[in-house]
Here is the input.
Amino acid sequence: MAVVTNEPVLKVAGLTLHYLTRQGEVKAVREVSFELARGQSLGLVGESGCGKTSIANCLMRLLPDNARLVAGQVFLDGQDLLPLSEEEIRRFRWRRIAMVFQAAMNSLDPVYKVGQQVVEAIETHGVETTVAAARERVARLFRLVGLAPQLMERYPHEFSGGMRQRAVIAMALSCDPAVIIADEPTTALDVIVQDRILRELKTIQQELQMCIIYISHDIAVVAEVTDRVGVMYAGNLVELGDTAEVFRAPLHPYTAALLSSFPRISGEKRPLATLSGEPPNLIDPPPGCPFHPRCPHATAVCREEPPPLVSRGSHWAACWHPLDATLSPMGQADASR
Amino acid sequence: MENSGQGPARRDYLVAVEGLTKHFPVTRSLFRKPAGFVHAVDDVSFQLERGESLGLVGESGCGKTTVGKLLVKLLEPTAGGISFHFPDSAAGGAAGPVDAAAIKGRQMRAFRRQVQMIFQDPYESMTPRRTIYDTIAEPLAVQGIGDVLDRVGRVTDILTLVGLTPAATFLFRHPHELSGGQRQRVAIARALVIGPSFVVADEPTSMLDVSSRTGIMSLMQELAGNLGIAYLYVTHDLAVARYMCHRIAVMYLGKIVELAETEELLGNPLHPYTRALLSAVPVADPDYRREPPDIRGDVTAPVDPPPRCRFYDRCPRATTFCRDNPHPPTEEKAPGHWVACYEV
Ligand SMILES: Nc1ncnc2c1ncn2[C@@H]1O[C@H](COP(=O)(O)OP(=O)(O)OP(=O)(O)O)[C@@H](O)[C@H]1O
Ligand SMILES: Nc1ncnc2c1ncn2[C@@H]1O[C@H](COP(=O)(O)OP(=O)(O)OP(=O)(O)O)[C@@H](O)[C@H]1O
Ligand code: SF4
Ligand SMILES: [Mg+2]
Ligand SMILES: [Mg+2]
Here is the structure.
């Protein structure tokens, strides 16, 4: 089949995922859709527990037993990954789509030397044919993430938290995948090492035209390294757009709150802002707009009806009262508020 | 040398660390002699008062977690000592300062009531098959605090305080049924639930969004104010340190290279490593282009480091004097501002 250019590398459509628990179904991901073009990077931000890792796990098809995929498709190079058998998915996982796990610190096997684990990943996927070539590749990857190649001979418990995190980044890069999902990849790194790794990742991404999804609570990192950014709240993607645009002129009140609460190390020390109200209960999410109980702009319609999508070019948000009043689905009345 | 650098002897200290050192052998195989030693922590000294938070920042692998584990006695030091001065003779019934090395056996339980650690990896304080309730209630059970009903109440309260609401939907979940940030909050709840005097918090909020993080930080500060809890707060996030910590210590390869009051350190960094570190903090503005930090070469591994300044290989200001002399002494360059560098 001829490959159509401009076709997105990754296309997620209507993804909906629930977890079954004793107290009820946790609605972790609700009708999430987005696309990624070749070489593009996407930041995924949002409150702790809003469903970011759950999306990543769907893309990798690594779901726990109590997960229930309710609806949606995940197309990688035009192939829907969700209906594939476990055996079929193995041809894609790690080789085409790889992930740096959020719990990177314990995704290494304690009984094998760290270098050996990466060498094995490379051999299993047939990226290099000889052990010597595989070891050479690992040494190069180690240097890239700021680990001395001698450290290949050490065991995970002899690594610091950040060293383990870097080893896991090296592992995700080891098979030159088309898409990398990096779930909080630099939380255990100081800013100098982080700076270096983000620069290296950017270089590789451009060279190999790789897609990267960065999941991060560090909005500054997202601002620096991503082309597009998606904002999640209570399992929903509530805003998506070019990073510069979303930061300059957010449309969704949650995004605005998220951006304004970011603390700085320079300038006057201002009191930290928190979102008032409690995080949403995903077993029994609020009706209408999920953000309405905490939203300063909420009106009656927000409490009853799910919000419509409003957009400005390729930048959209799901809100009844977007921060750009000219886009308001409520018409003049709202614009004059 | 009554106090080896890091600050004048403080009046009401809770923890005093003196010359703390930890070396790990690098072994190639089980039976051979070590090929060298990782100098994970090398001659570190500082003191902490009741209710004080000291931030510990520094390069990945510089020894922060090791310092924390030494303080809570999960590791034994190679050299140096730690003494605790708990309020009203809490640990082991002894009034006055207690030498950490002397706390053994039966006294450990009393020690655990006073000193807790929030691990960098939240899984380290959890067992996969234990529910969240069991995980948080365990220290209460070990210390014999309250009956079951009372514990359910306490666990519910602390879950609510750390933002896991409604608490009832979390009590009987297992660790793998939580998001990364939710697990971190369980680890925090577990450490705080018994009301310790001193908590080593090793990157406790690295997986939390700013809003949840702010909530937790206020909770921790409130406890510091009301109960006098002191924190050693390990973090890579200098903005977090700015809000949480009274003073900040900067480590590089096993050594504290700078220590000062938080605003002083952030506003007037003196050590070349601290300067590079501050310049590398990302800025939340997509149009801003940051220069790469002023630091040379690669991350160096702390295996048998040469006797000169630990930062020599990477320092933009290094001189031949730095090359030919031992690691610089820690000196007070401004009131309460301690730096170990020949060029300051
Ligand atoms: N296996 C599971 N069973 C039940 N609930 C789960 C399970 N895994 C995740 N959850 C819940 O689903 C929601 C989404 O979790 P997810 O891990 O995707 O969040 P996240 O956005 O990655 O958060 P964080 O930033 O804290 O890592 C959370 O509220 C979490 O408690
Ligand atoms: N059990 C061990 N055996 C051998 N070496 C160890 C051991 N634990 C730690 N190390 C080494 O000691 C040094 C300090 O590790 P530590 O975990 O204290 O660093 P850290 O400052 O917490 O780093 P990070 O910010 O990456 O978590 C590292 O070089 C590490 O490889
Ligand atoms: S839809 Fe309403 S409640 Fe939701 S974010 Fe917009 S204004 Fe706020
Ligand atoms: Mg997550
Ligand atoms: Mg550590």
Remarks:
- Residues 8-96+177-259 of chain A form a domain with the Rossmann fold fold (CATH 3.40.50.300).
- Chain A has a mean pLDDT of 91.
- The two ends of chain A are 54 Å apart (CA to CA).
- The longest helix of chain A spans residues 191-208.
